[in-house]
Design a protein that fits this description.
Elements: H1 3-15, E1 21-24, H2 30-35, E2 38-41, H3 47-50, E3 53-54, H4 62-100, H5 107-124, H6 146-170, H7 206-226, H8 240-258, H9 262-268, H10 275-300, H11 303-312, H12 320-330, E4 344-348, E5 351-357, H13 365-372
Parallel strand pairs: 1-2, 2-3
Antiparallel strand pairs: 4-5
Keywords: ATP-binding, Magnesium, Membrane, Metal-binding, Nucleotide-binding, Translocase, Transmembrane, Transmembrane helix
Main location: membrane
Subcellular location: Membrane
């Protein structure tokens, strides 16, 4: 094929809404490499200037590698987007509940959420390598797709449920007191009158302490759930740095929760709560993790379920090549069998009357009439 024919072929395929890839190693491939969605140069000479990708492998074995890397990048982008979105929603729901009681998280509590969780996730979640086996289907190519939006809405619902449960269940505890926030951990035979109690600060109350634990562990939950692996990425445990960071995050929050160090409580603007209440918080977080993981993996990532939903709602792709496929499936004469088709040659495109069949011995008049139309 000539360079112009290669470029024209790619343009025609793109008109049918195909995503076209092109491999080439010579100067005559530059035009086609530039027009393709993914142009791969198989050499470091002239073709590498026109193509966005240059392969060190001088054959088409590089194509599956490029597809796997591209899918891995796309899924990683979606995962980070979902995590950052849920990170904000978790904080917003927490603030709304605290505003209800005219209080707010402390400065160091906000700082701990941002440093220990947010920054470490955004820096390490993208370190997953692509899956070793190329999946037989591609991921969603757009950000605002029903599975992604439904995933965010579903986890937002879980956020409201778990935080409202902790918020209202806290107020039902016998030791709960909105004014006396330092007596919850005193022995039963002691009273606050027998100890020296300092004036509590704005953020030191049972609401902020409970919400700080709930939101912190919830952010770790969505971090683990969204850092998915197969089928387009390697599993989470292969990302050693992210796995270590998750373990450190869990250890830090457990230490702050169960250390019972007065100096730590003072710095973090936390108050002591009974031991069993802290266990209740861990149970709520564990249930949240199980429900979130099952919902994400068995519902959001269930390809068969989404294909069934598309079938139920008679969804049809709007791509041009899909439309042509549906038309051909309904055409009783396709594929053509037991017949001979002739190419139509016209002397001039502007003069369709001057058309003849390529074979002078057999001139199908119907084909000529069709060409003139």
């Amino acid at each position: 094929m000539t360079p112009k024919q290669k470029s024209s072929l790619i343009e025609e395929l793109q008109k049918l809404d195909y995503f076209v890839g092109m491999c080439g190693d010579g100067a005559n491939d530059c035009g086609a490499l530039n027009k393709a969605h993914a142009g791969i140069s198989l050499s470091e000479l002239e073709a590498s200037v026109a193509s966005p990708f240059t392969s060190k492998i001088p054959n088409i074995k590089c194509v599956p590698l490029l597809i796997k890397e591209g899918r891995n990048t796309l899924i990683t982008t979606f995962s980070i987007f979902k995590f950052l979105t849920m990170f904000q929603f978790i904080g917003i729901v927490c603030i709304l509940f605290l505003f209800w009681k005219q209080t707010l998280l402390g400065n160091y509590q906000y700082l701990m959420h941002d440093l220990v969780i947010n920054i470490t996730v955004t820096l390490t979640m993208s370190l997953n390598h692509p899956a070793p086996k190329l999946a037989p289907y591609r991921p969603y190519g757009q950000l605002l797709t029903p599975p992604l939006l439904l995933s965010i809405f579903m986890h937002l619902t879980f956020t409201v449920i778990v935080q409202s449960t902790a918020f209202f269940l806290l107020q039902q505890q016998p030791w709960f007191n909105e004014t006396d926030v330092f007596s919850a951990c005193l022995p039963l035979n002691y009273s606050s009158a027998n100890v020296t109690v300092r004036e509590h600060r704005y953020a030191e109350n049972f609401f902020t302490t409970t919400m700080f634990y709930i939101t912190g562990f919830h952010e770790i939950v969505v971090e683990v759930v969204f850092a998915k692996g197969r089928p387009f990425r390697q599993p989470l445990y292969t990302n050693y740095l992210l796995s270590i960071m998750i373990a450190i995050q869990i250890a830090v929050y457990l230490f702050v929760m169960f250390a019972d160090i007065e100096t730590l409580y003072t710095i973090m603007e936390l108050v002591c709560t009974p031991y069993y209440w802290r266990v209740y918080i861990l149970i709520m977080v564990l249930v949240l993790f199980i429900v979130s993981y099952i919902a994400e993996m068995w519902f959001i990532e269930n390809r068969k379920l989404w294909l069934w939903i598309k079938t139920m709602f008679t969804y049809k792709s709007k791509s041009q090549y899909r439309r042509l496929q549906r038309k051909l499936q309904k055409d009783p004469e396709w594929p053509p069998e037991d017949r001979t088709d002739y190419a139509i040659q016209c002397v001039s495109v502007e003069d369709p009357q001057n058309c003849t069949a390529s074979n002078n011995e057999h001139k199908p008049e119907e084909a000529i009439q069709q060409a003139r139309k």
